[in-house]
Amino acid sequence: DSYQKAAFWLKPGVIALDNVKIPKVDNESALLKVMSCSICGSDIRIYNEGNKRIKAPRILGHEISGVVIDKGNKVNNFNIGDRLSLGADILTDRNLAIGYEFDGGFSQYMIINSQLIKKGPIQVLNDIVSFDIAALAEPLACCLNGYEKSQIKKFHFSLMEKNILVIKVIR
Fold it and tell me: Which of 53, 96, 130, 162 lies deepest, with the highest CB count within 10 Å?
């Protein structure tokens, strides 16, 4: 068996780094080698306060990018070697999310389970997008969702020096 390092949330204020077996795929899952995982504000809140949806020990982290290194024979959405960006929420009748009900990306490898494969926000990346930028797709989606729910009707995007995105609200 092969092992990986993973950061487990145990209780408010306690995260432990441990060596654990790399998970195995079944026919309907895939194994992702995590290349980047951002720290979300919700990860910080969970670390500090916990969350009733999370049962310890849990691997947090839901702003993830990586490479598919293994997959079950029923997985047809992507291939071994594909570069992926993963978001948090799985569209079901219950509120399910990576890092909450399922282990997340604060590990070297993670399972992409069948529910996430079928209904989760997974995007196959081209070679131009870096893994660090791809891990920011989920927080960008949150910003765009907030924009769509706001009263702002017009805005202008511009890229500044050093790839900083500036959004100017036009009133």
Answer: 96
CA distance 78 to 56: 31
User: 36: number of CA atoms within 13 Å, CB side?
Assistant: 18
28 three-class SS: coil
* Helix and strand element counts for the chain (H, E): 4, 12
Chain segment 44-93, per-residue pLDDT in tens: 999 999 999 999 999 999 999 999 999 999 999 999 999 999 988 888 88
Q: Identity (one letter) of the amino acid at 59?
A: I
What does pTM read for this prediction? 0.84
Q: How many CB atoms lie within 10 A of CB 67?
A: 16
Q: Where are the alpha helices (DSSP H) in 2-160?
A: 41-49, 114-119, 131-134, 137-149
pLDDT tens per residue across span 117-132: 999 999 999 999 999 9
Please give the structure tokens belonging to residue 127.
């070679």
Question: Residue 36: is it exposed, middle or buried by C-beta count within 10 angstroms (0-12/13-18/19+)?
Answer: middle
The residue count for the chain: 171
Instruction: Measure the CA–CA gap between 70 and 89, rounded to whole angstroms.
Output: 22
Q: What are phi and psi of 16, to 5 degrees?
A: -120, 135
